[in-house]
Amino acid sequence: MSVIGNTAMRFDEEQSMLLDYARSFCADRGGLNAAREHLESPLEYSPAVWQEMVAMGWTGIGLPEELGGAGLGIGAAVPVAESLGKALMGTPLLSTLLAAQLLLRADANATSDVLRGIAGGDAACVAELESEDWSAPFACLVDDAGLLQGRKQMVMDAQSARWIAVLVSVEGEAAIAVVDAGELEAQAISPRVLIDNTHRAADIDFCNVRPALLVSGTAVSAALRDYRLLGALLVAAESTGATAACLDVTVDYLKTRKQFGKLIGSYQALKHPSVEILTMMDSARSFVYHASSLITDDALAQDQEIACRMAKAQATEALKFAGDRAVQFHGGMGFTWDCDAQLFIRRAQWAQQQFGDAQHHRQRLAGLLLDD
């Protein structure tokens, strides 16, 4: 097989319009000052801003029109994710879009009412991990009485979700239990502190909760695989936007800070890494939009898998490098909480661990791209 593989890239008029509007909206509603306002609050976003996103139909971007969605496909969410990243907006939108894709691909008919609710503005999330690593992903189970038994950790946006898609085991096979968050006891959700304070996560105790729906069958495993790859892609898009914002903050500092009577941006030791951030970001953006060009509503094939994995590996490495340089270039102030560089290096550390880090994806890319 060729290492080059599929290199198609398309950016249609709808995506262009969505990107322009999303950039304008997120820049107006988000940004560093808005992000800092919510760092210590229970929610990392303004409910009023979330309702504006709902009114624009963003929660239904990836859903078909017959389910109340926009019918644009999940690839159209990439410009929105990039814009959210550039504004450091931590709304539950990406979790909601991914939960919808998991349910849509597992069984659109059985979950149609839930999907219509999501398209109408119900936030959703996926509860996957049984521990803080990737071991025992299906230890949570449904007992003979039809009740959930088990606990999930690090559930992103759990505090905001109306619907929670819980990965469970039913007679030894993977299944999805859809839980109405209103059925949970108040103490069932335990907030966790993340390194990235622009996002929220929690542990959830599901013991003796009766799910609203239970989706099983062979399609669940395929849907879960697609969900993880699409999650990698949207986090890559978000990370690419955050890298652009980090570069802007860094360059602005280099153009104003003086040492020994000279702007520090005039020194080659700082110019060259800044250019490297730019080239890494541009590469990541190319990978992200290449992947979005290939994504369809069908099950992801090898070309789509390769594209999603390449995007995630490149984008999160770019953000990690940008965040590290931003802290270093700001000197001692860069290591303080008050410096905006902290927001980016923390976002980079969070993004690395979502849906697999760069090493994880490159190990799998080796098997996909290199001949035996």
Task: Examine the secondary-structure arrangement and name the CATH architecture of the domain at 220-369.
Answer: Up-down Bundle
User: What structural category do the secondary elements indicate?
Assistant: alpha+beta
User: Strand share of the residues?
Assistant: 5-15%
Task: State the separation between the terminal residues, measured CA to CA.
Answer: 9 Å
Rg over C-alpha atoms, rounded to the nearest angstrom: 21 Å
Average pLDDT reading: 91
* Proportion in helices: 40-55%
What general form does the structure show?
A: globular
The helix tally amounts to 11
Q: Kindly identify the CATH topology of the domain at 220-369.
A: Butyryl-CoA Dehydrogenase, subunit A, domain 3
What is the ordering of alpha helices and beta strands? HHHHHHEEEEEEEEEHEEHHHH
- Count of beta strands: 11
- By CATH's scheme, which homologous superfamily of the domain at 220-369 applies? Butyryl-CoA Dehydrogenase, subunit A, domain 3
Biggest sheet: strand arrangement: 1-5-6-9
CATH class of the domain at 220-369: Mainly Alpha
Task: Report the major sheet.
Answer: 4 strands, mixed
Stretches where pLDDT falls below 50 for ≥5 residues?
none
